[in-house]
Automatic annotation (TrEMBL):
It holds the Pfam family EDR2_C. Residues 27-213 form the Protein ENHANCED DISEASE RESISTANCE 2 C-terminal domain. This is Protein ENHANCED DISEASE RESISTANCE 2. It comes from Morella rubra. It comes from the Eukaryota. InterPro entries: EDR2-like (IPR045096), EDR2_C (IPR009769).
């Protein structure tokens, strides 16, 4: 991979925030009510309800490329996480690092109980019908299908989700990448509630990625 397009990378800020969704290659938080979650009485009636809010606030997004897998972004100097930590702030960060299938990867056999209940709800709100049908809007227990690697510090927890660990996921992502410039991708993250004590579910956070452009991804310099 060519090395002449390196730019300094402040992790958490390489994508612009645009609540109006008029700027291509930008992000904002998605409307929580877009997503259905398990309600207080789900074990009795199996009904899901619209989410009303999120437990955390989205503060940044990255669009990165590399010739190898990039882990523990939250622990890197210059990241939003480390800047807040240096200032002595009390903020805690939850980082979802979705690693595409083209990066080199290692195989991990370990799966934790956390991985078994961590859910992602995808939604293509604008774009090709083919992509919408392929992605769907059904909650996915990530740890049952993909390898998740965990990294943490005093003020953050990062989940590295390896798309390349699943043939099915690689196929879906490859399809999405083919239409990427014309898509609005929305996601919600949560922990599945399996018992009455764990219900109702609450969204940890939401994300909306607007018309991403693969050519504008920032090359990581290491």
């Amino acid at each position: 991979m060519a090395r002449d397009d390196f730019v300094p990378c402040c992790y958490g800020t390489t994508l612009a925030k645009d609540p109006t969704c008029t700027l291509a290659c930008s992000w904002t938080a998605a409307d929580p009510s877009t997503f259905l979650i398990r309600g207080e009485n789900y074990l009795q009636n199996r009904k899901k309800v619209k989410a009303k809010s999120t437990l955390m606030q989205m503060v940044g997004a990255d669009w990165l490329k590399s010739d190898k897998r990039e882990d523990d972004l939250g622990g890197r100097p210059g990241s939003i996480v480390q800047k807040y930590a240096a200032q002595g702030g009390s903020e805690f960060f939850f980082i979802v690092n979705i690693q595409g299938p083209d990066a080199q990867r290692e195989l991990y056999e370990w799966k934790s109980e956390k991985g078994m209940v961590f859910k992602l709800i995808p939604y293509i709100s604008k774009g090709s019908w083919i992509v919408k049908q392929s992605v769907g809007k059904k909650a996915c227990l990530i740890g049952q299908a993909l390898e998740i690697n965990y990294f943490h510090g005093k003020n953050y927890l990062e989940l590295g989700i390896d798309i390349g660990s699943s043939t099915v996921a690689r196929g879906v992502v490859s399809l999405v990448l083919g239409y990427l410039n014309n898509l609005v991708i929305e996601m919600a993250f949560l922990v599945q509630g399996n018992t009455s004590e764990e219900l109702p579910e609450y969204l940890l956070g939401t994300c909306l990625l607007n018309h991403l452009d693969a050519s504008k991804a920032v090359l990581v310099n290491q």
